[in-house]
Design goal:
The complex is a heterodimer.
Chain A: H1 2-30, H2 37-54, H3 59-82, H4 90-112, E1 117-118, H5 123-126, E2 128-131, E3 134-137, H6 138-160, H7 162-172, H8 174-179, H9 184-209, E4 212-213, H10 217-232, H11 237-257, H12 265-279
Antiparallel strand pairs in A: 1-4, 2-3
Chain B: H1 2-19, E1 22-29, H2 36-52, E2 61-68, H3 73-85, E3 91-94, H4 98-111, E4 115-117, E5 132-134, H5 139-153, E6 158-164, H6 168-183, E7 187-194, H7 202-211, E8 215-217, H8 222-234, E9 241-243, H9 250-256, E10 264-267, H10 277-290, H11 297-314, H12 322-331, E11 335-336, E12 341-344, E13 350-351, E14 354-360, E15 363-370
Parallel strand pairs in B: 1-2, 1-3, 3-4, 4-5, 6-7, 6-8, 8-9, 9-10
Antiparallel strand pairs in B: 10-14, 11-12, 12-13, 14-15
Helix pairs in contact in B: 2-11, 3-4, 5-6, 8-9, 11-12
Classes of the chains: A mainly alpha, B alpha/beta.
Chain lengths: 294, 372
Amino acid sequence: MFMQQMINGFSLGSMYALIAIGYTMVYGVLRLINFAHGDIMMVGGFLGFFGVAVLELPFLAAVLLAIVGSALLGMASDRIAYRPLRSAPKISLLITAIGVSFFLENAFNVFFGGVPRAFPVPSVLEDILEFGGLTIPVSALIVPILTAMLLAIILWVLFKTKYGMAIRALAFDVDTVNLMGIDANRIITIVFGMGSALAAVGGIFWVVNYPSVDPMMGVLVGLKAFAAAVVGGIGSVGGAVLGGLIIGFTEVVVIAFFPELGGYKDAFAFIFLILILLFKPTGILGIDFEKSRF
Amino acid sequence: MRKLSVLAASALLLASSSFAKEINVGVVMSMSGPLAAYGQTCNEGIEFAHSLQPKLKNGDTVKLVLIDTKGDKVESANATTRLISSDKVVGIIGELTSTNTAQVIAIADKKEIPVIAPVATNDKLTEGKKFANRVCFTDSFQGAVVANYAAKDLKLKTAVVVVDQAQVYSLGLAKAFKDAFSAAGGKIVKEIKVSSGDKDFKAVVSQIKAANPDFMFLPMYHPEVSMIARQAKQIGLNKPMFSGDGVANQTFIDLGGDAVEGYMFTDFFDYGAPPTERSKEFIKAYAAKTGKQEVNSFVALGADAYNLMVDAMNRCANPEDNICVNNEIKKTKGFEGVSGVISMDELGNSTRSAVIKVVQNAKAVYKATVNP
């Protein structure tokens, strides 16, 4: 029973972690809390649904479609909504992000309707593994593995490639980076593409685990992933994963030990968030932004 | 003389134009947002009933003014105010959920505009209100139906209840069930609270599995219930599951897939067992228009909310007299509706039958009728 709940917490936590990585990427570079991130995740889920249910593509092709589509959407949102505001105060950028979020939610509501649709989960992912009384659905098992893989890939890109170096440099100082002959706008576009691709992966595996697609599905998850990114230290990729796990475990522990208070599990998760921020305002793995990032 | 005849003619014209008036009836409904599936279905019933009977006995035309609430409390209140102050409606049909309907009633009651709630089942809704009415049954009746059916007909002894504490509907239905099930000799072994909007219930179903009850009662709406059913099946929790009318929708079955086979829930009406002549005619007309026989119970209740409103307006000398319309609604006895025979009481609650349905081969199938 206890082990089962730990597995539940781990699978939920890595789900949040997967989405939180995208938040933290964009924040690290632009110091923009991209509130549209949860909605890009929703678009990823919809594209996956569209690929599997309408175009009848194989699952992996649908994942690819969702990743490419969402990455393009993320880059377009940067080009259209954020780039013109590059030198504007940060608060304008934040409000614009909320605007993009509302736009996506309502556009999907108008074109696809608010009725949740069932996502046809491939049967391989619906299998259930059993080890001595523990039951683990394959779909839940695959998320932590995927999160770890993506984390490794992102860390590799950030620390071992030239683009990664440019991204890290950009996080320090946009103007100086421009002086060094790096096209800052192009790097930012790449970051948005990467962040949105991550959101799409998160969206697809979210609907594989919880097979229902609707235009508002990104709101609550986005908020929790944001909280996870803040707990872990926003701007830090490893911190986002840690924060996601913490939020996931908190929710499961509340239900496991205090079922009467289960409805308040989000409140517990956020109280935890406040406590951590009281003692370490930059988050667990967060570093002072004026000194370093990632 | 010529002047006089012109005058007479114009007076006649005036009289005839004022004779066939257009009377506004407001509809407040969740047409988008998380509960859009229900709201759109319910509104379909209201509009279809309107298309069958667009005129009153005296020749006046009823005009429906629909406002979308997006499933939101504040939007519901704003919509009500707008309908009363700028559209001058005689009565209001709506909202969908008990939580939002309470907002509609709070405002309409002050302005003395009668409200007919098609599907809002919370007991407290009509308490202390003069202008609140409904065509559906209440939660205490619905909770008792499930409790007695499970305890007496299926001989189940222990239950786990999962409550959505963000919904008034869920809290009321859970309480009614717990009281009735305990009274019938059953035992509630565990109560777990969740809140709507969640998708991950793995921790919840693991808890239920550990408690090992005879069955589960989930008085919630379909987005959460379908996810719970799926995740329960994943961990091999194969106990009978019951819900109230909150899952009486095809979307629930689509979302739940295989996991909701055998799921049981209470409903108001089944198109396969039409309770009145009017239901038969309605089903026939509905099939002619849409090409499908399956009249959803929310369609039937939406239609009855409209029919009851029109029936009460017909019995008033002046159908625009909101006080008279409200009194006539409450005086309705043995009204042959689409969803069944409805009798109203002083409080504005209706006495009517319930049906129990079970999901078989991805369809909701009629199982039993329960009379009050």
